Amino acid sequence: MQQTGMGILGRIGELLAYPRGDYRDRLESWRTAPPFGDVEADSLLRNFLRQIQDLPLEQVQELYTHTFDFNPACALEVGWHLYGDEYARGEFLLAMRERLRRHCIAESRELPDHLSNVLSLLDHMEPQEARNFRDGFLIPALNKMLAGLAEHDNPYRYVLLALAKRLSSQTGEGSAEDLHV
User: Fold this and answer.
1) Is the predicted pLDDT of residue 172 greater than 80, yes or no?
2) Which of 52, 39, 64 minimizes the C-alpha distance to 149?
3) pLDDT at position 93 over 50
4) Is 1 among the domain residues?
5) What is the pLDDT of residues 53-78, one digit of tens each?
6) 3 found inside a domain
7) C-alpha dihedral (160, 92, 120, 126), degrees to nearest 10
8) How far is Cα of residue 138 from the mean position of the Cα atoms in its chain?
9) Who contacts 99 (Cβ-Cβ below 8 Å, separation ≥6)?
10) What CATH number does the domain containing 80 carry?
11) Is residue 46 part of a domain?
12) Could you list the residue range(s) of the whole structural domain that residue 128 is in?
């Protein structure tokens, strides 16, 4: 059975996928979407949208590549942060591919453990499975991503902080700042 619809985490994941030709449409859908209902996360995402909206696509692509691809400390692959180049990362990638398939999520151009895929997957998991995955894999990796993004004026930092805020509200923790190093 094909899963339809996209939850908030999957929508955040769209902002963290490589900016291609439809990126402007993704940004517009965020501008017109109802807010999260979390003042801090909504503000963080508005900051991101405000900083990125007038940039040409090529400049957004350069920023994305500089932020995530040329900076291994902020790579968007969850397994990289958990296992590095160890054999266990390969096993994690295979397990992620199986999870995506089991939840009828089509693979993207990104690796199965890319944050955009992981967030879409979390939207489709049963609550307990999602909690276990979030707490055991996603939050430790997100902590490392945030620590690796030293550029406080980088617009993508707002997206990661909004994600952290969203996850912290799901775990019952306080602010997004409490979630990362």
Assistant:
1) no
2) 64
3) yes
4) no
5) 999 999 999 999 999 999 999 999 99
6) no
7) -120
8) 9
9) 112, 121
10) 1.10.3480
11) yes
12) 8-179
Count how many residues are written for the chain: 181
How confident is the model at residue 5, as a pLDDT? 54
- Kindly report the backbone phi and psi dihedral angles of residue 77, in degrees, each rounded to the nearest multiple of 5, phi listed first: -90, 115
Residue 22 lies in a domain: yes
Separation in Å, CA 165 to CA 28, 38, 59, 85: 22, 9, 27, 29
In this predicted model, what pLDDT tens digit does every residue of 118-146 receive, in sequence order? 999 999 999 999 999 999 999 999 999 99
Q: Tell me the angle at which helices 39-52 and 155-171 cross, rounded to the nearest 10 degrees.
A: 160
Neighbours of 42 (CB within 10 A): 15
Under a CB-based contact definition with an 8 Å cutoff, are residues 181 and 173 in contact?
Answer: no
**CA–CA separation, 75 and 7 (whole Å):** 23
Split into its structural domains, the chain has a count of: 1
For the entire predicted model, the pTM comes to: 0.87
Inform me whether the pLDDT recorded for 181 exceeds 50. no
**CA 161 to CA 163: how far, in whole Å?**
5
Q: Which two tokens stand for residue 133?
A: 């995955």
Predicted local distance difference test score (pLDDT) of residue 101: 96
Q: How many CB atoms lie within 10 A of CB 39?
A: 10
Which string of DSSP letters, residue by residue, matches 146-163?
HHH---TT-HHHHHHHHH
